[in-house]
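quick one, 217 residues, struct below
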Amino acid sequence: MTNLGKITYWNDDKGYGFIEPDRGGDRVFVHVKAFTNRSRRPAAGCVVSYNMSADSRRGVRAVRVAYMDREETSGLTIGWGFFTMIGATLFLSCVCAFGFSDTMSPVIPCVYLGASMITYFAYAKDKSAAKDGAWRTQEKTLHLFSLMGGWPGAILAQQKFRHKTKKVSFRSAFWVTVMLNCGGFAWFLMPNSVEKTVGFIDALLVTIQLSLRQIAF
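---
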């Protein structure tokens, strides 16, 4: 028997949620593996059709779950995500342009391109693991990749795979890594930035040494 309902709760990290039946009654447990369309990520508010199967832990669970509302026809989000992807592409283009001029070493664009590729595939692997209920990549690892210059690849992967685009805490931390990386890149382009950085580190070390001597005596 086919039932209709709406997903009222969804835990994207763990890949499960609950469906509120249209006909009333108790919520029905649903796992991400039960969906017939695995290319789309479930979310609270989605209207679905489903069958029910016996479950030893929960009594019943939803199986053969299909979306009843409008399906997205593209793997890319048109809107804010689309413009962030354009911005990431322009940033990489500027970095490559600087790399082929005398402004900075060509190693820098290679680092950004390499980090972006690694980050893109890390997101793809995590998305696949989320679908299959396998071991996930830690969020702090994804943030570290972004901080090291892989954030353009992260933006492309987020929009392509519809992954990590709704969790507020993750999104906030992600944009912090983007700002820190861009700030570091801007500092690097400033005249004598390397010398200034070395001088700042030397001054900091001297201050720490003097403080330790005062504490010791």
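The CA atoms of residues 143 and 174 lie 6 Å apart.
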